[in-house]
Write a structure and sequence with these properties.
Oligomer: single chain
Structural class: alpha/beta
Helix content: 25-40%
Number of helices: 14
CATH architecture of the largest domain: 2-Layer Sandwich
Distance between the termini: 13 Å
Number of domains: 2
Shape: globular
Bound molecules: adenosine-5'-diphosphate
CATH class of the largest domain: Alpha Beta
Number of strands: 14
CATH topology of the largest domain: Nucleotidyltransferase, domain 5
Radius of gyration: 21 Å
Largest sheet: 8 strands, mixed
CATH superfamily of the largest domain: ATPase, nucleotide binding domain
Length: 397
């Protein structure tokens, strides 16, 4: 079975075609600047790089170019589009209506539309990608895999905000959580590596990348997570503020006479380690700047590490017992120093990282000492594969 996985951002589209008989990626690609002058498709298969530079006014045109690239005589990997058996779509927000991946039907579509209110850049783009596939591949089934779905098992004590209950009842204002596909993948992989059934697994999944979130997993299910109504809450991220006193937000809005949209833009795009350091949102740049003595870059790194510690320790107490702390995402998989800094201080609880074992990037490794009370691990996440797996099993069922 061949499954195409599509991940539409507001002006971008990432795709991978999987051969699900062996779970191998046949080809992958990216379309940038959709709806902006200078659109570009880059498709890669091994050493072969195929580039289409042509303006694409919307996601429908982008999807159409993706299909052209997949069947291209010289650079494509399939002879005909009929070889695609199903398409899996990443969708950001499914609210309370969506608790698992699903074949597209009226209700799923309605949920994508309804929760645009909390994901105004992403859900409309996800819907456009979906509609383009329905139009161009009318006989193929589409599956939606939601970032929020994994977290729908959170209890009220972790998902409610401390505001008038009417905002939850009337407007569905609550914590939803994101990166669910990644946390779900990591949970399953950890159970497999530890030889435990998922239902018996308690763990902390730390997805640290441009966007970062931590998930407390109890009995294989999401019990708490650091992102909230939107992906803005929680850790300090590349350009997102994370947790902040709401009064700071209203103060800045009043002082600079900002609209809600302008303030959201500041909190999402101009804050985080980028805003604090004034250097970059990329942790590699921050680490070199800090090494050269840049105080603000060092402060940004220290803030990031401190918040990750705070969430991990708090979540361990919430779930009662913990089998593993797992690092994933661009930073979690690659930054040896940040993992070391985060775990410093956990020795008092008998949790110890082994500096030699921790000297790894990506893959799947236990990096704690043999006598550590909780296993610390590095596991490379694979959200696209998780989407392809869900798509395959739903279409087969
Ligand atoms: P996204 O959230 O966009 O999927 P990723 O998970 O790919 O992002 O993470 C990208 C981030 O990972 C980069 O911005 C960078 O900060 C960090 N990163 C990647 N490689 C390294 C490295 N070797 N050392 C430190 N940080 C790294």
């Amino acid at each position: 079975m061949k499954v195409l996985v599509i991940n539409c951002g507001s002006s971008s589209l990432k795709y991978q075609l999987f051969d699900m008989d062996n779970e191998e990626v046949m080809v992958k690609g990216l379309v940038e600047r959709i709806g902006i002058e200078g659109s570009k498709l880059i498709q890669e298969e091994g050493d072969d790089k195929y580039i289409i530079e042509e303006n694409m006014k919307d996601h429908t045109e982008a999807v159409s170019h993706v299909f052209d690239a997949l069947v291209d005589k010289d650079h494509g990997v399939i002879a005909d589009l009929s070889e695609i058996d199903a398409v899996g779509h990443r969708v950001v927000h499914g609210g309370e209506k969506i608790t698992k991946s699903d074949l597209i039907d009226k209700e799923v579509r309605a949920a994508i539309v309804e929760y645009q209110k909390f994901a105004p850049l992403h859900n409309p783009a996800n819907l456009m990608g979906l509609e383009a596939c329905e139009k161009l591949l009318p006989n193929v089934k589409n599956v939606a895999v939601f970032d929020t779905a994994f977290h729908q098992t959170m209890p009220k004590r972790t998902f409610l905000y401390g505001i008038d209950y009417k905002y939850y009842e009337e407007d569905a204002i609550r914590k939803y959580g994101f990166h669910g596909t990644s946390h779900n993948f990591i949970t399953n992989k950890t159970a497999e590596v530890l030889g435990k059934s998922v239902e018996d697994l308690n763990m902390i999944s730390a997805h640290l990348g441009n966007g970062s979130s931590i998930c407390a997993v109890k009995n294989g299910k999401s019990y708490d997570t650091s992102m909230g109504l939107t992906p803005l809450e929680g850790l300090v991220m590349g350009t997102r503020s994370g947790d902040i006193d709401p009064s700071a937000v209203t103060y800045i809005m009043r002082k600079e006479n900002l609209s809600p949209e302008e303030m959201e833009n500041i909190l999402n795009k101009k804050s985080g380690v980028f805003g604090v350091s004034g250097v970059s949102s990329d942790f590699r740049d921050l680490e070199s700047a800090a090494k050269e003595g840049n105080d603000r870059a060092q402060a940004a790194l220290d803030m990031f590490v401190t918040r990750v510690k705070r969430y991990i320790a708090g979540y361990m107490a919430e779930i009662g017992s913990c089998d593993a702390i797992v690092f994933t995402g661009g930073i979690g998989e690659n930054s040896i120093k940040i993992r070391e800094d985060i775990m410093a201080g956990f020795e008092q609880f008998g949790i110890k990282i082994d500096p030699e074992k921790n000297n790894v990037r990506g893959g799947c490794h236990v990096v704690s000492t043999d006598d550590s009370k909780v296993k610390v691990m590095v596991i490379a996440t694979n959200e696209e594969l998780m989407i392809a797996r869900d798509t395959k099993s739903l279409v087969e069922a």
